[in-house]
Automatic annotation (TrEMBL), chains A, B:
Stored Gene3D superfamilies: Tetracycline Repressor, domain 2 (1.10.357.10)
Residue ranges constituting the HTH tetR-type domain according to the UniProt record: 1-61
Record-linked PROSITE patterns: HTH_TETR_2
Annotated region of DNA binding: 24-43
Name of protein: TetR/AcrR family transcriptional regulator
Signal peptide positions on this chain: none
Keyword annotations from UniProtKB, A to Z: DNA-binding, Transcription, Transcription regulation
Entries under Pfam families matching the protein: TetR_C_13_2, TetR_N
Domain of life: Bacteria
InterPro entries xref list: Homeodomain-like_sf, HTH_TetR, Tet_transcr_reg_TetR-rel_C_sf, YxaF_TetR_C
GO molecular function: DNA binding
DNA sequence: GTCTATACGACGATAGAC
DNA sequence: GTCTATCGTCGTATAGAC
């Protein structure tokens, strides 16, 4: 069981960094220090089964982390700013954004594999639920809260894409600056 | 020359649909009804050179189309709404978003190939310049206009990603509804 | 549960005839 | 400028020993 979770952890990072199709099994095995036999023992249906396991794992960890941040800050604005700050910090430390986006998997696989698409959609749904809940606690109506929650996740996901293209954390900083406009009534 | 532009056109659509790594040369050749010899005559440096040509071509067509829309509507709000409406229409007609995003190329290649990353960054830069110019004409300060322009492109790009994951045009509709919050002073 | 060995197709790219 | 033929590599996946 420890091997299985190590595979998932390593594969998740690699998939986020290089995309699903960009990671060969050999590279993954080298990184995990295991062999094909072991991989196919844990994931009999191969690479796509592994990807879905990675997405479920990402879903849990991202949801937990965002929930933690949102529990710690009194307002949605402060919580979202803190979340983006964390993304920026991670980007500046590592040069990429690992652990907080499934964009590469969405754009690569959403039109090709229904199970993968569903797993990505669940992740977006969960984070939007966290945003939405806090917005309603602040007095937004349900429909307004849901609209803003969807927009927040679009803004953050798009902001990460811009950072990758520009090779700079500036887009996420800008997005963070604009949040007050979006979050006032 | 006619062959070359047909290759670019076909390849652009395929890359956007299935991602760069997801499109094999054989599939592309079949679709274009040409052979390897011809492809490598026009693109001696192979697939990545073709990708960059596609990105430049996309850059021109997207910029022109957005410029057209922004010239036609009096306010940034109306223009952006019209642009998103067009994306939604295209999505509902074809089931995917082809011709208006480079997300898949960014997330697949941005960390791997500098020329590809640069070509994507240029596209974002050009569209943001269009937004920004119109915002300034409406009285926004330069720094405010630029912040909003970056956020608009993040919002649209992220919105498309959510649509693909959810298999629904709803996220883009929601994003469109939220625009007034972002665009008022 | 992990290993080695292997199958076999697809990949991007090249050479050379026409 | 377009064709065919072919190269070497790497892709995912499987079989079977330990």
């Amino acid at each position: 069981m420890e091997t299985k979770s190590r595979i998932i952890e390593t594969a998740t990072a690699l998939f986020q960094l290089k995309g699903y199709k960009g990671v060969g099994l050999n590279e993954l095995l080298r990184e995990c220090k295991i062999t094909k036999g072991s991989l196919y023992h844990h994931f009999p249906n191969g690479k796509e089964e592994l990807l879905i396991a990675c997405l479920h794992s990402l879903n849990e960890s991202i949801t937990a982390q965002i929930e933690g941040i949102f529990a710690h800050y009194p307002t949605t604005l402060e919580a979202t700013e803190a979340m983006i700050d964390m993304l920026i910090g991670q980007y500046e430390k590592t040069g990429t954004i690992i652990g907080y986006t499934v964009s590469s998997m969405v754009s690569e696989m959403a039109t090709l594999s229904a199970p993968v698409r569903t797993a990505c959609a669940e992740l977006y749904y969960n984070t939007q639920a966290i945003y939405s809940k806090k917005l309603m606690a602040e007095g937004f109506t349900e429909s307004s809260a849901q609209s803003i929650a969807v927009s927040l996740s679009a803004l953050v996901e798009g902001g990460m894409m811009l950072c990758l293209a520009q090779k700079s954390s500036e887009p996420l900083r800008t997005v963070s600056d604009v949040l007050p406009k979006l979050l006032r009534n």
